[in-house]
Design brief:
Blueprint: H1 12-31, E1 35-40, E2 42-44, H2 53-62, E3 67-70, E4 76-81, H3 82-96, E5 100-106, E6 111-113, H4 114-125, E7 131-134, E8 143-144, H5 157-170, H6 172-175, H7 182-185
Parallel strand pairs: 1-5, 2-4, 3-7, 4-8
Antiparallel strand pairs: 4-6
Amino acid sequence: PQRTSPLRPSSPYSASKASADMFVKAYVRTYGVKAVIVRPSNNYGPRQFPEKLIPKTIIRTLLGLPIPIYGDGKQERDWIYVEDTARIIADIIEKFAKWDGDVYNLPGKQVMTNLSVVMTIGEIMGREVRVKFVEDRPGHDRRYCMKPSIEYEVTPLREGLKKTVEWYLNNKWWWEPMLSDKFFKDDLPWR
């Protein structure tokens, strides 16, 4: 949505995001708290918890396990590299913020289906990716996209995915202790 668009949550997940915005605005109005609301699209990159789509795909591909994908995998998501998000938030704080609950949408401006992201990761890794389609979750939106509130540059998706794959390959010590968790043992999609 544009930052002036009314919030129209369509699921408990999106309602939780919208309610967080409303809480911030209520604190600004009621208590004079200085705040900025930042709405990044789907972040990815090093150190993302392995239950999420991109790290889960990397790790399960390394282990030769199938990647669980909700529905038909054609849900579209807008991806932004985590280092870009951090840099853009710093720019907002330094150059743009009014501190009155102002809202900034931060899309990655790179829309791709979940299935395409998984297959691209396989190409980057030089490995075959096995996909297992699983029942879609109730209320799962087909597309999450928004327009940016300010102008900025982002890391191209393939380049960011390559950096992310390299990080997970070089930092097994970080994620290997988590392999005993249920989301690795079962063919469950990301949570």
